[in-house]
Amino acid sequence: MTAGRRIPRALAALLSLGLALTGVALVATPASAATTHTVTDSADTNTSGTLRYLLQTDATVVSGDTIDFAPGITSVLLTGVIYVRVGLTIDGGGDVTIGRANTGGFAQLYMYPTDAGQDFVLQNLTITGIPLGTGTALGAGYGPTNELPRDITLSNVTVTNELNNYAPIADFYQVQGDILIEDSTFTGNDSDSGAGSGGLFVEFGSPTLTVRDSTFSDNTSGVDGAALTLLNFSGAIVISGSTFERNHTDGNGGAISASTIGSLQILSSEFNENNADGNGGAISLSTGADWSVSNSTFENNDADQQGGAIYSAGVYSDSNVTDSTFTTNSAQSGGAISTLVDAAVLTVARSSFVGNSFTSGGG
Predict the structure, then answer these.
(1) Mean pLDDT of 9-14
(2) Which one in 10, 58, 254, 360 has a CA-CA gap of 20 to 30 Å to 245?
(3) Is the pTM of the predicted complex or chain greater than 0.85?
(4) 202-231 pLDDT, tens digit each
(5) pLDDT above 60 for 7
(6) pLDDT computed for residue 19 by the predictor
(7) pLDDT of 38 strictly over 90
(8) Phi and psi angles of residue 18, each rounded to the nearest 5 degrees, phi first
């Protein structure tokens, strides 16, 4: 263009419009914000405003959203399982209890993703059973198109008084991501009436399971692991700042039973008055798990067979105990700790063993 020549008004307008449109095109479109949906009706019906409708049916509820509860709604009694179809957050605000309206056996909330990559968060919520009722509080597994949950978080969640012949707290199957349990309480849950493992049951998968600042108390199991059972779980397990007390199993691992796992690390935790009719009054480990305990206490745990506090039978498992205390634990063999495999290495440093007892085989 020749210097000093004027641009016709029509052309100037078009150029101005073109520049404006170009400017608009360069502005990134923001991602849609997550939405909070509120439960306004405590009834367990598949109608607008109910928990069941929001979790199972409402198409406006999408991955990443949050479900909360209107003021005044403190209890929702379920007549059957609710399938949670997308990854979202359920926030009870610390005031809401989900319970059972009948004694039928069902999982109260089952994470049942319709798509891959779904993360589930439950927080500030109580889930409870009823006398003579059966079923597990929480479940997670294959969805309708064979998709599996990714991450699962339980934060400030209480599960109490659930009765089931298998995993009354939760049954998590092949979770694809990490499992985090924090600031939560699991008490008075019972699978002793049946032949199933008790407590929170995690099977298969290879994520990291983290339990921190939580309490497992007065849970019972008919087979193994009244508080926590892990089976064919190749990931790492980290337990910190947590308390396991007065849990009982008819099998192995009064509090924790772990078979064929990747590794177990216990930090700054307490195991008190747990009991097993088999091995491992507090903890039973088998099939090759490396494990370590540090800054933890084991007191008054009891096993009818081996390992009053800890029983370890893992092939080639290396074990470390540091800065920990074992007091008045008892078993037939290995009043405090029993390790069975010659190839295993148990290293103990800066720890005390006081008043542990055995009837045969060493303390």
Answers:
(1) 39
(2) 360
(3) yes
(4) 887 777 999 999 999 999 998 899 999 988
(5) no
(6) 33
(7) yes
(8) -60, -45
275-314 per-position pLDDT tens digit: 999 999 999 998 767 899 999 999 999 999 999 999 988 6
Secondary structure string (H, E, C) spanning the chain: CCCCCCCCHHHHHHHHHHHHHHHHHCCCCCCCCCCEEEECECCCCCCCCEHHHHHHCCCCCCCCCEEEECCCCCEEEECCCEEECCCCEEEEEEEEEEEECCCCCCCCEEECCCCCCCCEEEEEEEEECCCCCCCCCEEECCCCCCCCCCCEEEEEEEEECCECCCCCCEEEECCCCCEEEECCEEECCEECCCCCCCCEEEECCCCCEEEECCEEECCEECCCCCCEEEEEEEEEEEEECCEEECCEECCCCCCEEEEEEEEEEEECCEEECCEECCCCCCEEEECCCEEEEECCEEECCEECCECCCEEEECCCCEEEEECCEEECCEECECCCEEECCCCCEEEEECCEEECCEECCCCC
